[in-house]
Design a protein that fits this description.
The complex is a heterotetramer, with two copies of chain A (652 residues) and two copies of chain B (337 residues). Chain A has 652 residues and is an alpha/beta fold. Chain A has three domains: 223 residues, Pyruvate-ferredoxin Oxidoreductase, domain 3, CATH 3.40.920; 188 residues, Thiamin diphosphate (ThDP)-binding fold, Pyr/PP domains (Rossmann fold), CATH 3.40.50; 135 residues, Rossmann fold (3-Layer(aba) Sandwich). Helices cover 34% and strands 19% of the residues of chain A. In chain A, the strands form six sheets. Chain A has a seven-stranded mixed beta sheet, sandwiched between helices. A six-stranded mixed beta sheet of chain A has the order 3-4-2-5-6-9, with helices on both faces. In chain A, α7 runs antiparallel to α8, α9 packs across α14 and α17 crosses α20. The longest helix of chain A has 20 residues. Chain B is globular. The N and C termini of chain B lie far apart (53 Å). By secondary structure, chain B is α/β, with parallel strands linked by helices. In chain B, the strands form two sheets. Chain B has an eight-stranded mixed beta sheet with strand order 2-1-3-4-6-5-11-7, with helices on both faces. In chain B, strands 8-9-10 form a three-stranded antiparallel beta sheet. The chains are: A alpha/beta (652), B alpha/beta (337). β11 of chain C pairs antiparallel with β12 of chain D, so a sheet runs across the interface. The complex binds thiamine diphosphate (TPP) (2 copies), iron/sulfur cluster (2 copies) and magnesium ion (2 copies). One thiamine diphosphate sits at the interface of chains D and A.
Chain lengths: 652, 337, 652, 337
């Protein structure tokens, strides 16, 4: 892990820090995601705790150099336990003017900005709308950045010169400039570069070795340039974080879901049939698991979302574990079929990787606004449990838990993740295979006295009898059924009793689910209640509050619907409840209606996570509010750059 | 597969559920044909699955004593895809209507066709929505007065055979509810086909569209208004088989064999790789020219479910049965002591 | 209105009653709906207040004579103001054994049952499952009906004999037997028969005159048979009800919706484009309005529900009022497109004629379980108002109101009705045309300073600019937009502000909507809060309770979402709130979460309305419960024949 | 209609929105063709509507300065139905992709085709899902490695021309992004057609499926791999037009006119009522035989929107403009004094 082999002509202090946030930003074509990923992996292997936040441009490919074309990747790495990718970057690497313009509002005075001077030319400045009186101006020249530490480097030149030996075209050479920047950051934070070197060699393979060599040369050039010139004056060290013993890998949320699906097939000894239709940000799950054909996992890219969910449910009928995944608009299309899954009482996993909405909305941004769609968005009384993942690595455990519930209770189950979890990453302490949860699947085989709607008296789950089994021939469908026989029944009393039975079956899961994560004082003036991907921000804010001596607890749901049976009791111990959500108060509504408790809603619908500091401010504010008080979601929102809600009115 | 169970009979495929179609409905005859054909296929009873959407026709699963899934409107092909892919040993049949299959379900149908999913589709075409009490369907004729078209339908209908050929179905056939021998043999042919089999069945809805096919299938006139496609045989029709169909340029024409004996009648080749000729004879206008029944097309192609499995098997053969630990513990790992 | 021309050989007492409930029941092929409708029209014209409840077999046509094939029609007609079709029939007309078996549980001892003896033969008894030890038995012979007044008539014989002169086939003759029964009822309740005679002549027309004559003969035969034989011993009179001055017609809910759509086109001077896909019980709206092609109303039967809603929204974009209608499963399919309507801020009316669910459920039965689907069933934050009709005639006013909101606020609006309203009927005091509400539609035409997302400062509605208008060319779509210009915007703050703006726009309707119907004491121990088709049952029960001296008020929502601004204030005046719903407590959930008030939920999901008496019992019960108390929907349900929820368990 | 505005130019149809396709994408050329054709049609600018679903191709409306609706994935034909029926004076164009039109949107497309709705569909076929970054589409070849098929596609693709013919489209054509003159003329032909016009456009996605059509459309080889359909002309191709296509039995075959001069080449008749021949030549296998471009079919049929209006007008003519009072006050009325 030493980079000493690269010599060290200039002497630098090496300060120890306990955490750093870097944001790489550039054009979509600049390779920022790869750059960020490499820094992440290297820091992970180095032993830091970390969290990342990629930020893609929307689905469409914007023209190079423009503001909508900017792609970003933020990583926070630390010598301590951390929970979010950080509120504000310590270093911004801006590959072009557009990247500078888009990201500057997030950078506090005094922080470091590395700019690629080669791109601060009129043509690029114009595209980034650095324009005054119809003419381009250069923000590097007008003192507007004086409050920052601006490091100017001609990355283009370094890339071209360092890759000369490898016979690349000028375009290919220029493509290496992100590795120059990465090399500089490796030096600045004293990271080993050999992991990235190894990865580059693997990535390009023997056929494109000269590309690997060129990128490696660029990487080293950046490293040495930082070292030999006095670019940064100082060097930093972020020691490994004290982490739980074990073997680690870095994992993104979608990846963890995919791994869990393979695990589910193995653990349940039952094939998994995944049917999906591509949609951002869920598609990567399909991409990944389509490689797992030797894990008892088949994938089917259907003609649309409806076909996908129906095929998955058909597969469940046939004895596989049917799984489908999508994002909001696609989930909306699946709801009729999910109602059929409720009626036929077959297992089905529906993964909703939430994104900004409504409608097409902000497809590449994150949000947690599909909760009520999942809880209530089907015709008639069609109760369905909802499990939610709270961190990229947690997606693994939640997926297994959702499958467990689906097969144990013979029910469709929603798993909620979101764009932030899907593409964000964190170190994952790999579980021992033998410690993974059991997933018991029992197929009926005895024809004697067989009834397709006979139930387990405890779970109320019906039996699972798969086609091909002699003597269990039976017919199911979407019309109301007589309990037991499963025959069609139009009897009013039977209907009433079946509607309630299905509801009680799902309500029962409240007693057989992952309990909320509770942390901090078990009673007191305030508990922050959350669900899903806000866990990191909430934990960060609560810990900061505690560090300030405030008596604040945290309660985080992993099972969102039905609400865990213990939740009412937990909440009753606190004088105030604060519910921060990246929606307009959806959990707030459920908690109010189910538990009849008052709560302060705090909402932010900006397509990006809460910052620790805005949550901390809110915690302090709510502590001063009346006990057992309440704030409606529309009344209370996270502040943003734009304080006023502007409304363009007609005329005038 | 389990060895064929020689003792199966029609009765084995009857359920205890009362059949709830209107008296006189053509669906009874189709059910009867299905129950007659299933026991002859050498497939154990428990290996059948009958899937359907919603409609009178889609009640089929309740009446066939094997596994059945009465799903939601239009989606039967999607359910069948999951079922067949999850367990390729099953013999999967779809019962559907002109509304279920061609209106709301059109997309799933054409995609299952192009993929060549190995399922058999029996489309009960009564040119009406029966279950919802008489609105026009995508096969209803222009000008028809129905519940939802008091002044007549303005939509041009689909030609279901054209649509199936256009979507690449590998087996395309047509039969008639009241022609039980023909229907039975077509179902047998469909069962024998490896791949997607589409069977359009003219079916009389005596409540909402009574006599829709009388001009074609009434006993007395049938021979003049239907022409049977038989592989390797020339296209002849009429009671005395004294009329034939040949090509004039690119257009089919009828020849009276009594007055114009000829040896250039179209000789039917259901294995013809191109569907163009099938397409052509399926365009012969109703009333003016005889309507073909029988097998328009039966060609061999890899099936979707087969290829999906094959790929999975190949991957497993190459990479070995996946090991969970290997999978989880992959990528860049590091240890914390 | 006198029937004296038919002679009156036997003398009968004629007792005056203030109300009667008759149920006609027979096989689906027996014409019970026609029979009921004729009785209804005649009673309406006679001047009674009335309410009807048809009860069809499920969509499939069951075999003749079987229990699932039974079709029923209940009518309550009265000399006073009534609200429901009545809890228990005074007279049951049972055309066959199956009809007797299915309906007997609803008939109280001492009531009258008219049976068609001709059908009580072994073959029919078997089909009705009157079987003991493998043999049919006749309930008319075994004293099991001793507690009822059973009137035995051979309706077949009367039908055949009376129609002899007209040369009908025996089958045709037998088909007239329902008119024999109708004639008997006309005599019994002293109704004029000429309306039905007139209708029969119109119905069959000159071409089928002999069928008209035969049915008229059968009708008269029934009338005279009742009069001349001493069948009923007495005759009853139900005087006209004191009703508001005006011109009346009888109207079914679906019919009223259809009429309102034609009215909307006229009142707004804007074409209505209706796109639908058939589904029970919504199809009749399409059937009816497809006749209104000369009212500025086009209808399109689409290939599916998604196409229907998209075509309707396309039409709205093009400057028509887009309307679509369906029932639960079809509405589920439309939700993605409704989200687009929210984002593009175009008017759209979505009519949901609710039916029993989940999934295909009980397609011909009623339920009010789609409320939460309408309020929350879309991806992300996609606020949409919900208007609900409370009686068949009210469907007219509610439809107009929903259209008004849609065009005023440029938003999709749900109109909720249900199977009970759709097919039930009541007398409707026709409004004067000039009293109908104004529906103002304003299309932008001035290109100067035109911005597609400029807003009315009060309603926050954006402008409506229709294609074809020179100078207003613009592009809209489902991606988040910058307010004002409507251009695509990925700006986080803009997104937050637009999400809130759309929500505030809809929230504003709380101040500009039909207020709740409030009735009874304006404060006190109990208010019964309802919405939708429960109005009749609730009113009946509340009036009974008041008659018993109980201090009970009634508050009924016509605008369900957003909750009317005044609701909180109204409810706060009562010590207890009781919310009866034909679902598992959906309004209860909304009220709890929005207003944070406790309430007793009372639920019934049997595919049929509450009876007045079960509601009255509940009112009495709740009055004894703690003030400001609460009961969860799963804890409190309407009682039914089947008191226990049975669960078939595995094995054993 | 407003009188044609003679002064419209290409620039009038450019919007102020930055075009956000990848540099080098075939979509630019198509946009260019659209912007060139629109001003020549004699239609005022405000009477155009461009509708789309979701996909790279579906960004089209943002770049054409007229009315535009960027709707939801696959549903453009349904929106277009509402728009065109609500205002038949509008010239309605759909921009869509192989995924948007044929995968999720297949059903709406074939129904709009069968109804003969008067709209023009430009289907950008790049044989890939571009916007979602590279999954296979229903036109991708078997065996193709994509994001979602690391071991190769197992689905058989659609032949879009077959599907359109099978669904009864009245105008079916094909062109190529890089052949701007041809493309422009095909768009002009589509615009002139009264009824549904389906234009498949081979489009290069240089990011996720670069060169998908190179084997057909590269400048040097184009003449040998494409055959242009021209009404009334024999099917000839090759740089020197020295190759032709004729029928051998029911199968098309290539003749080398240098060695085998012949006068029995297929002479193209786009008005042929049956689509069978169009179907046949659309089946010629890629690489082995030339791919037809140009107009496969152009036949006259009543349009859906036209018939819908006509019916409404007839009803109004017969029954008079509806009076609201008459309508409400109908049926059995009674008065309470
Ligand atoms: C989502 C949905 N939309 C609509 C319906 C109502 N529906 C049931 S069957 C049917 C049409 C049936 O027509 P077809 O498939 O031809 O069957 P048939 O009854 O004629 O045999 C319709 C519109 C439904 N059940 N679900
Ligand atoms: C309901 C829904 N499902 C899925 C998506 C994601 N999606 C957007 S475009 C697209 C496919 C685009 O392919 P194509 O139509 O061929 O367009 P191209 O980008 O290739 O031009 C998909 C799957 C979506 N936006 N909405
Ligand atoms: S409605 Fe028609 S199709 Fe349906 S059961 Fe009756 S006769 Fe058959
Ligand atoms: S991804 Fe492909 S189709 Fe989409 S803009 Fe880029 S090159 Fe064009
Ligand atoms: Mg049908
Ligand atoms: Mg594409």
């Amino acid at each position: 892990m030493d980079v000493g082999n690269h010599g060290s002509p200039v002497h630098h202090d090496r300060k120890t820090l306990d955490q750093v946030v870097i944001r790489f930003a550039g054009d979509s074509g600049d390779g920022m995601q790869i750059t960020g990923n490499e820094f992440t992996k290297t820091s992970a292997i180095f032993g830091n705790d970390l969290a990342t936040l990629p930020d893609f441009p929307a689905e469409i490919r914007a023209p190079a150099g423009t503001l909508p074309g900017v792609s970003g990747f933020q990583i926070r790495f630390a010598a301590k336990d951390i929970h979010t990718p950080g509120d504000e970057p310590d270093v911004l690497v801006a590959m072009n003017p557009a990247a500078l313009k888009v990201n500057l509002p997030d950078i506090r005075a005094g922080r470091t900005i590395v700019v690629n001077t080669a791109t601060f030319v009129d043509k690029e400045l114009e595209k980034a709308l650095y324009m005054k009186d119809g003419k381009a101006f250069n923000p590097l020249d007008d003192h507007s950045l004086d409050s920052y530490r601006v490091i100017r480097v001609d990355l283009n030149k370094l890339a071209i010169e360092s890759t000369k030996p490898f016979g690349l075209t000028p375009k290919e050479s220029l493509r290496c400039k992100n590795f120059v920047a990465l090399g500089m950051m490796y030096w600045l934070y004293h990271r080993p570069i050999e992991h990235t070197e190894k990865w580059l060699r693997e990535y390009f393979g023997p056929k494109k070795q000269q590309l690997a060599d060129a990128n490696i040369a660029a990487l080293r050039a950046g490293y040495h340039y930082a070292e030999t010139t006095d670019l940064f004056h100082e060097q930093f060290e972020i020691p490994p974080a004290p982490m739980r013993r074990g073997t680690y890998r870095n994992v993104m949320g979608n990846q963890a879901v995919g791994l869990a699906l393979a695990a589910a097939a193995k653990l349940s000894k039952t094939p998994v049939f995944f049917a999906g239709y591509p949609i951002t940000p869920a598609s990567d799950i399909l991409h990944q698991i389509s490689r797992y054909k030797n894990y008892g996992l088949l994938t089917f890219q259907a003609e649309d979302e409806i076909a996908a969910v129906c095929a998955a449910l058909g597969a469940s009928f046939a004895g596989s574990i049917g799984v489908t995944a999508s994002s909001g608009p696609g989930i909306a299309l699946k709801t009729e079929a999910i109602g059929l899954a409720v009626m036929t009482e077959l297992p089905l996993l529906v993964i909703d990787v939430q994104r900004g909405g409504p409608s097409t909305g902000l497809p590449t941004k994150t949000e947690q606004a599909d909760l009520l769609q999942c809880v209530f968005g089907r015709n008639s009384e069609a109760p369905t449990p909802v499990v939610a993942a709270s961190s990229p690595a947690d997606c693994f455990a939640r997926t297994l838990e959702a499958v467990r519930i689906a097969v144990k209770y013979m029910t469709p189950v929603y798993l909620l993740t979101d764009g932030y979890l899907a593409n964000g990453s964190e170190p994952w302490c790999l579980p021992e295979i033998q410690d993974l949860p059991k997933i018991d699947v029992h197929f009926q085989s005895n024809p004697e006295g067989f009834k397709p709607y006979a139930r387990d008296p405890k779970t109320l789950a019906r039996v699972w009898a798969k086609p091909g089994t002699p003597g269990l021939e039976h017919r199911i469908g979407g019309i109301e059924k007589r309990d037991g026989t499963g025959n069609i029944s139009y009897d009013p009393d039977n209907h009433d009793s079946m509607v309630r039975l299905r509801t009680r079956k799902i309500a029962g899961i409240a007693h057989d689910c992952t309990p909320p994560l509770v942390d901090g004082p078990s009673e007191g003036p305030l508990v922050v209640l959350g669900w899903g991907s806000t866990l990191g921000s909430i934990t960060g804010a609560v810990e900061s509050a505690q560090a300030k001596g405030l008596k604040v607890a945290r309660c985080h749901l992993q099972q969102v619907w039905p609400l865990p049976a213990t939740l009412g009791g937990i909440l009753s111990k606190y004088e105030r409840i604060l519910i921060p959500e990246m929606n307009l108060g959806q959990l707030w509504r459920l908690v109010r209606s189910e538990l009849a408790v008052d709560a302060y809603s705090f909402t932010k619908v900006q397509g990006r996570p809460f910052t620790t500091s805005e949550l901390l401010r809110k915690i302090e504010e709510v502590l001063k509010m009346p006990a057992h008080g309440s704030a409606h979601p529309l009344e209370s929102k996270a502040q943003s750059g734009l304080l006023q809600e502007t409304t363009e009115t007609v005329g005038g | 597969m389990t060895p064929p169970n020689a003792t199966l009979t029609k009765n084995d495929f009857k359920t205890d559920q009362e059949v709830r179609w209107c008296p006189g409905c053509g669906d009874y005859a189709i059910l009867n044909a299905v129950q007659s054909v299933f026991p002859t296929l050498g497939i154990p009873k428990e290996k059948f699955v009958v899937v359907s959407g919603i409609g009178c026709s889609s009640r089929l699963p309740y009446y066939v004593n094997t596994y059945g899934f009465h799903s939601i409107h239009g989606r039967a092909p999607a359910f069948a895809t999951g079922i067949k892919c999850a367990n390729p040993e099953l013999s999967v049949w779809i019962g559907t209507g002109d509304g279920d299959a061609l209106s709301i379900g059109g997309n799933h149908l054409i995609h299952a066709m192009r993929r060549n999913l190995d399922v058999k589709v029996l489309m009960f075409n009564n040119r009406i929505y029966g279950l919802t009490k008489g609105q026009f369907s995508p096969t209803s004729e222009v000008g028809k007065i129905t519940k939802s078209t008091p002044f007549g339908v303005v939509d041009q209908p689909f030609n279901p055979i054209h649509l199936a050929l256009g979507a690449g179905a590998t087996f395309v056939a047509r039969s008639v509810d009241v022609m039980s021998k023909h229907l039975t043999s077509v179902l047998q042919r469909a069962a024998a086909h490896r791949g997607f089999a589409f069977v359009e069945i003219y079916q009389n809805c005596n409540i909402f569209n009574d006599g829709a096919f009388d001009h074609l299938v009434e006993k007395e006139i049938r021979d003049d208004h239907l022409v049977e496609l038989e592989h390797g045989k020339p296209l002849k029709f009429g009671k005395a088989k004294d009329k034939g169909v040949r090509l004039r340029g690119y257009a089919p024409e009828i020849v009276d064999l009594k007055t114009t004996p000829t040896d250039d009648l179209i000789v039917w080749d259901e294995h013809e790789p191109s569907s163009a000729l099938a397409f052509l004879i399926a365009s012969m206008p109703e009333r003016a020219m005889p309507q073909p029944i029988g097998v328009f097309r039966a060609v061999d192609k890899p099936t979707f479910d087969g290829e999906l499995r094959k790929q999975a098997n190949e991957v497993t053969a190459t990479h070995g049965d996946g090991d969970l630990k290997d999978l989880l513990y992959s990528g860049d790992l590091w240890n914390v002591e």
